[in-house]
Amino acid sequence: MTRQSKGSEATGRKVDVLRIGNAGGYWGDDPAALRRQMEGPLQLDYISIDFLAEITMSILQKQMAKDPKAGYARDFVTQVSPLLQTMKEKGIRIITNAGGVNPRACAQALFEAAHKQGVSLRVAIVEGDNVQAQLGTIYENEKKAGQPALLNMDDGRDFAEIKDRVLSANAYFGSKPVLQALQHEPDIVLCGRVTDTGITLAALMHAFGWSEQDHNQLAHGIVAGHIIECGAQATGGNFTDWQKVPHFENIGFPIVECSADGSFVVTKHPGSGGLVNVQTIREQLLYEMGEPESYITPDVIADFSSIQLKSDGADRVAVSGVRGRKATDLLKLSISYEDGFKSSGALVLSGPDAVAKANCMAELFWKKLNSDLQFAGLSPLEHTRTERIGADSTHGPLSPSGVVSEVLLRLAARDHDINKLKIFRKVLPGMILSGPSGVAVTGGAPVISEIVSYWPALVPQHVAPASYVVMEASGSATPVEVASEENICWSETGGVAERSPSDDANQVPVDWEARRGEMPLKRVPLMQLAHARSGDKGDTANIGLIARSQAAFDYLQQTVTASFVKERFGEMCLGQVRRFSVPNLWSLNFLLDHSLDGGGTMSLHIDAQGKTYSQALLRVEVLVPEPVLESVSPEMRAPSGELSA
After folding, report:
1. DSSP-assigned states of every residue in 188-219
2. CA 161 – CA 416 distance, rounded (Å)
3. Largest CB tally within 10 Å, which of 70, 110, 399, 567?
């Protein structure tokens, strides 16, 4: 593999292969990942780091309201400061959304750190995504024009319902402002709300000279960004067959080695922990996927049904064949707003009849709480939830084998009246000595927290133009402006986000259902036929079910329908289940609407993001023809363990 130096890129000659590594998928990810990526044996050109989730913006907005020097991911400054000299020496550039709602303050903190070390630094600051001050004008102008005005993308509610409770509002920029800023060769590009995929795509466009019309190349860049955006999830983290991962110590974060035609290889630093194979990449591709033929970004609409994967050696997977089409002329807005309060508390019930004790305690708790609310002249709580969680840590080896001997009883409530929650938090500790035996106290009175809810909306691109400014400091903590640009918009727009067909009745090569009577059947959990990954989009959970062979995929298409999943998830999924087939990945993608109790910080579920839903589906048992089971090659089989029928 040939690779030209960073200098060749700066002089305008194209590189043969560009290496981009990811060093973080969320705020709080492994703080040592950046150092490992920067100092590893593979020479990287760029490192991307993602710090922002939808609700994070409102937290940062509150911080900046209290302190004008706050409002960004301080962890980024802590992580990168000791590595500034290494970054400069190796010619590595960093692109990150660590700027939050105050990228200029983040940049100033970086300049101060560089000054202490005597390192010159050039930082590009991407701005314009914060449109909170313009929301009222945007809303009124769209209404006057007869256009849908900031309607909630998930449920169609009118923005007027929450306009007086808004905490933050940020447009999702794509690659364009980052691409423009890269022309000035900054060491670090600091962004606010840009798409996770856009920061990867911008580096590729800059290196290879791709234009807005190069839809297939852009789609490859989007897929590359999607694979690495969640850090170690692509390199063995959260992998269904986790026993196949050699070890998780110092897990290698993902690296993409990209070529000018768009194709790329996913890998990690040699010798690092984790695993990269076709299975881990399939799982990450299905993570938080919506409709596979229309993966919508501000840069391009990517067709995930066209992705081709193949092994390229140990810890290397080649990706190619991705199709793309023109982006829409809309931007997504991420709006957060005040939405009441919630609280949760827990007790451990142990010993014989632990489940019955937990049920008794829960019944006592809710009866007493309702009585206390009524006495205070308050109505019942708007939303409550009871959860029973158990393993066995209280009695250890004394517990009878196979018997549930402890339950963590978790009680939660949500309401817009904080006075009800104040009563809720006092009831639980007051019952410790007045219920069943075997109670272990897990803490004091439950904490009441504010709920910040998420409101996704669409707006025309022109209402949120991007801008950037490039600052540089050499031998001083006071930077000077080098370049700037305003009113940056993506011009190649107007594409249509066609809906992928929901597909409960696809034709498949072998009709296994028709042949059931011709061959022996075996009852097995779905895990013997598939692995899976699940995630969330608001109140919708997605489960990507990935077959272990072509025959297994054909069988799953016929057997695991939307109605099959809906029936199994029962009351956990209050809305419809939609299924989309992704044959090129041997995959079925399920969208479970209204299954996360509102999602985000609103949810009272212990798993508010649906991360465990894939494991629940894999436990479901089905009758499978033995030839289907035999079609799974040894290297693709699920590890032995709790797999027997």
Report:
1. EEE-SSB-TTHHHHHHHHHHH---TT-HHHHH
2. 14
3. 110
Residue 124 lies in a domain: yes
Q: Rounded to whole angstroms, how far apart are CA atoms 224 and 208?
A: 15
First to last CA, the chain: 47
pTM: 0.91
Closest to 427 measured CA to CA, from 382, 383, 388, 375: 375
The first and second tokens of residue 110, run together, are: 């970086």
Give exposure, 299-326, as e/b (b: 16+ Cβ within 10 Å): bbbbbbbbbebeebeebbbbbbbbbbbb
25-48 pLDDT tens trace: 999 999 999 999 999 999 999 999
Does the pLDDT of residue 512 top 70, yes or no? no
Sort residue 150 into left (φ over 0), alpha (ψ -120 to 50) or beta: left
Write out the two tokens for 300.
């391009």
Boundary of a domain, candidates 449, 474, 506: 449
DSSP letter, residue 377: T
Q: Would residue 48 count as lying in a domain?
A: yes
Are 372 and 283 in the same domain? no
Q: 159: which 2 tokens?
A: 């923005």
Q: Is residue 601 part of a domain?
A: yes
Alpha-carbon distance of 7 to 520, in angstroms, equals 64
In this prediction, residue 2 has a pLDDT band, given cuts at 50, 70 and 90, of very low
CA dihedral (520, 521, 524, 529) in degrees, to 10, reads: 80
Distance CA 304, CA 286 (A): 9
Residue 375: Cβ within 10 Å count:
9
Shared-domain flag, residues 312 and 406 = no
Looking at the fold, whether 411 and 525 belong to one and the same domain comes out as no
Closest to 178 (Cα-Cα) out of 159, 197, 155 = 197
| Length of the chain counted residue by residue | 645
